[in-house]
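Batch job 17 of 40 flagged for manual review because the log was empty.
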Amino acid sequence: MRLFEAVKANVTASQAAAYCGFTPNRSKMICCPFHNDKHPSMKVDKRYYCFGCGKGGNVITFVMDYENESFQEAVASLAERAGIE
């Protein structure tokens, strides 16, 4: 299995958000980091979607966009944080 496939299969957007310093509430909602959000409008579960600005994607694109990383950098950092070799 390729590394990016292992990351997508084993790491959720909720976990990625937690790695980035967000604390999803019981409904797995956070304030969207991609627009000025005062109330949680982004659902982070297996994938993520913001009901305010419409931004969404998978665990890898969340880290790419939030940390301004390339695809390879995002996959490597997620794999390291999740303990995937």
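Reviewer: the log was empty due to a logging misconfiguration, but the result itself is present. The two ends are 11 Å apart (CA to CA). Unflagging and moving on to job 18.
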